Amino acid sequence: MTGDFDYQGYGGRYARIRRGDPRIAAQLARALGPARSVVNVGAGTGSYEPADRLVVAVEPSGDMRSRRAPGAAPVVAAVADALPFPDKAFDAALSVLSVHHWPDLEAGLAQMRRVARGPVVILTFDPEFLAGWWLADLCPAVIAVEARRYPAIDRIAAALGGSVSVTPVVVPADCTDGFSEAFFARPEAFLDPAVLDAQSAWGFVTAGERQRFQAQLAAMLADGSWDRAHGHWRTRAAFVGAVRIITAQP
Ligand SMILES: C[S@@+](CC[C@H](N)C(=O)[O-])C[C@H]1O[C@@H](n2cnc3c(N)ncnc32)[C@H](O)[C@@H]1O
User: Fold this and answer.
1) Residue-wise pLDDT tens for the chain (250 aa)?
2) The ligand 1 atom nearest the CA atom of 200
3) Does the C-beta of 10 come closer than 6 Å to ligand 1?
4) Are 7 and 63 in contact (CB under 8 A)?
5) 41: how many CB neighbours lie within 10 A of its CB?
6) What whole-number distance in Å separates Cα of residue 160 and Cα of residue 64?
7) What is the 3 state secondary structure string of 106-133?
8) CB-based contact 20:47 (threshold 8 Å)
9) What does the alpha-carbon distance between residue 21 and residue 16 come to, in Å, rounded to a whole number?
């Protein structure tokens, strides 16, 4: 295992539920700017890899690597804190929803800075903003777990150095990706075991807590109490919650 969660055996559900959202991809493309060559660290099954640039993916999990689409960018089996590339080998370095898994965050970010001539772009969750939606009322345990796992934005910025900007990400109500906030308007999704299995957070709460949450949510949806308390979330077109893009120029 190379991070805090073992993705071996999870790749199938992950690939089905976690499909990169084109609107979030457009926000990442703006952060990458004119970069032609990009290394994508913690690439998983290939979500958010720009098709119009030269991409090299880095992914330690064999299961995730095996589920990359035919024709996807070449993938190297490696971890963030030992990137097997020369200094300044790429125009830019990208990492999407991966830094919270790394055993040595600063070492991984230093490696990304080392191999990129231009921007290092990190998509992650700001732990200070995770509780800003209805899941925090129904399952505070999973929010607390996530708040402990995600590194502070300031820590990432300090490790990258240079000129750093932090941009909140707009998550659309019909987001095709399957991280938890993506379902802010679709509570029924949390009753699907495949959705929870594709979100590593649920591997850090007890099975009993996961069952309790799902039973409570199912009951609240059935008797209308979820809609009375939280139904306004169904009508929002988008949500700016905890997802952030950090861009560090050298
Ligand atoms: C939540 S997935 C994100 C995958 C992909 N970037 C996406 O957005 O769908 C996290 C990925 O980070 C990878 N990972 C875990 N530990 C890592 C490490 N030390 N270095 C690089 N990647 C790592 C996992 O194997 C997994 O594929």
Assistant:
1) 566 666 666 566 666 777 899 999 999 999 999 999 999 999 999 999 999 999 999 999 999 999 998 999 999 999 999 999 999 999 999 999 999 999 999 999 999 999 999 999 999 999 999 999 999 999 999 999 999 999 999 999 999 999 999 999 999 999 999 999 999 999 999 999 999 999 989 999 999 999 999 999 999 999 999 999 999 999 999 999 999 999 999 9
2) 1
3) no
4) yes
5) 29
6) 27
7) HHHHHHHHHHECCCEEEEEECHHHCCCC
8) yes
9) 13
What is the distance between the alpha carbons of residues 40 and 55, in angstroms, rounded to a whole number?
Answer: 7
Ligand 1 pocket, residue 2 CB under 6 Å: yes
Query: Does residue 98 line the site of ligand 1, with CB under 6 A?
Result: yes
Q: Is 73 in the pocket of ligand 1 (CB under 6 A)?
A: no
Q: Which atom of ligand 1 is nearest to the CA of 14?
A: 9
Q: What are phi and psi of 191, to 5 degrees?
A: -85, -10
| Assigned token pair, 29 | 């493309």
Task: For residue 186, give the amino acid letter.
Answer: R
Amino acid identity, position 161: G
pTM over 0.85: yes
Ligand 1 centroid to residue 97 C-alpha, Å: 7
In the chain the domains, ranked by start, together with CATH numbers, are: 11-249 (3.40.50.150)
Which token pair is 170?
A: 């707009």
Any ligand 1 atom below 6 A from CB of 185: no
Q: Which residues contact 155 (CB under 8 A, 6 or more apart)?
A: 105
Q: Whose CA is nearest to atom 9 of ligand 1?
A: 47
